[in-house]
Design goal:
single chain, alpha/beta, Rossmann fold, five-stranded parallel sheet, 16 strands, globular, amino-acid biosynthesis, Thr_synth_N, EC 4.2.3.1
């Protein structure tokens, strides 16, 4: 399997090199040169497989030529063996044909564990084989950081620096990052918003001279391995609901477009998906594109669903690449225009093509709380605010009641007590046993100004397990 850049000017790479590269040298994102496609018979034969075995069948083509089958099977068994639920991603029914896919049974109680538990193991495997050491600099709007730290904390050949917006993540999210200690773990609170953090990461990839020879690796969803891992649970959910003999629709809470792009890929790989709903909050750049062909940067707002407080959706470039016939030069021009002018529209026929599959809705905080309360009253289930946005969007945008609707349950509600309290849900939420003492643990974090040079100087000074790079 070879991978190419969405901007057309970077060399094609194999999986191992893409894993370590993250962002392409031309500023683009890597995608498979040719997407594998499965027959309906092949997909049907996977019904009833344990999650790690299904993951092997879905992801095997993406790592072909880089990881032997036996090694990859072992990595996957270890990855999903740490999840608290034996089904790994169980479905919970809300009503007759509406389901929540619970993606929060991993170590950090968020869907990011599906990819980042795998990414940490893949990095360890690859770096050990190559005798290399790398630095991770990642940005998080809440959940990626803790999942990345949890997934990479035991990696012998990795130093990890996670940037989060100061005072803009929930207390549980912050503590899940700042209470894990290790010589190779560094938490940085940036006096800015998530987009500021994300921009610093992108700029650091563009010029890595501050590392003095060590290379950067991405853990954000620009890393192809994360997208690859997320494709699996679309197949998993569909197979539980009668797929591939019947189509399934999905509503996906998304800010960076990575999770829903995985669903788009699952469909292109042969899974019958009728509809993909982009569910977002007040920071609605994706909704404005899907509903009106306007991809325009606006002011970022803090909301009750902080993991989606994102104004520039990095992975959206991967969809644009397909919509433009995989023309790298066209995407390079489009993204340059966006950087210069803050927005763009695409040709009408390209937007119309996207609308054949995608619908969208922006949900504000009041509607989020109303949905949490409504679902609790109807079912006794407590939703986190991101999942509630997914439910609201599913109910507003659903094209057919006959087709099962699956809402991606992206996080455990205990991570967002403020939203649950504002919704008026009286049910006491308890942290799982492995996190029961979270609020008593010591924290370690460094607050830095919204300044790229200050951040890069900190990384350079504290890398290599405390020895300056």
């Amino acid at each position: 399997m070879r991978y190419i850049s969405t901007r057309g000017q970077a060399p094609a790479l194999n999986f191992e090199d893409v894993l370590l590269a993250g962002l392409a040298t031309d500023g683009g994102l890597y995608v498979p040169e040719c997407l594998p496609r499965f027959t309906q018979e092949e997909i049907a034969s996977w019904a009833g497989l344990p999650y790690h075995e299904l993951a092997f069948r879905v992801m095997r083509p993406f790592v072909a030529g880089s990881i032997p089958d036996a090694d990859f099977k072992k990595i996957l068994e270890e990855t999903y063996g740490v999840f608290a639920h034996s089904a790994v991603a169980p479905l919970r029914q809300l009503n007759g044909n509406e389901w929540v896919l619970e993606l929060f049974h991993g170590p950090t109680l968020a869907f990011k564990d599906f990819a980042l538990q795998l990414l940490g193991r893949l990095l360890d495997y690859t770096l050990e084989k190559r005798g290399e050491r790398v630095v991770i600099v990642g940005a998080t709007s809440g959940d990626t950081g803790s999942a990345a730290i949890e997934g990479c904390k035991h990696c012998e050949n990795v130093d990890i620096f996670i940037l989060h917006p100061h005072n803009r993540v929930s207390e549980v999210q912050r503590r899940q990052m700042t209470t894990i200690f290790g010589e190779n773990i560094h938490n940085i609170a940036i006096e800015g918003n998530f987009d500021d953090c994300q921009e610093m990461v992108k700029n650091s990839f563009a010029d890595q001279s501050f590392l003095k020879g060590t290379r950067l690796v991405a853990v954000n969803s620009i890393n192809w391995a994360r997208i690859m891992a997320q494709i699996v649970y679309y197949f998993h959910a569909a197979l539980q609901l009668g797929g591939p003999a019947r189509s399934v629709s999905f509503s996906v809470p998304t800010g960076n477009f990575g999770d829903i792009f995985a669903g788009y890929l699952a469909r292109n790989m042969g899974l019958p998906i009728n509809q993909l709903i982009v569910a977002t909050n007040r920071n609605d750049i994706l909704h404005r594109f899907m509903s009106g062909n306007q991809y325009v940067k606006e002011t970022l707002h803090a909301t009750l669903s902080p993991s989606m407080d994102i104004m520039v959706s990095s992975n959206f470039e991967r969809l644009l690449f397909d919509l433009h016939g995989r023309n790298g030069a066209a995407i390079a021009g489009l993204m340059d225009n966006f950087k210069q002018g803050g927005g763009f529209s695409v040709e009408q026929e390209r937007w119309t093509e996207a609308r054949k599959l995608f619908d969208s809705l922006a949900v504000d905080d009041a509607q989020t709380c109303e949905t949490i309360a409504e679902v609790y009253e109807q079912t006794g289930e407590v939703l986190d605010p991101h999942t509630a946005i997914g439910v609201k969007a599913a109910r507003e945008c659903r094209r057919s009641l006959d087709i099962p609707m699956v809402i991606l349950g992206t996080a455990h509600p205990v991570k967002f007590p403020d939203a649950v309290e504002k919704a008026g849900v009286g049910k006491a939420l308890e942290l799982p046993a492995h996190l029961s003492d979270l609020f008593e643990r010591d924290e370690r974090c460094t607050v830095l100004p919204n300044d790229l040079k200050a951040v890069q100087a900190f990384v350079s000074q504290h890398g290599n397990r405390g020895k300056p790079l």
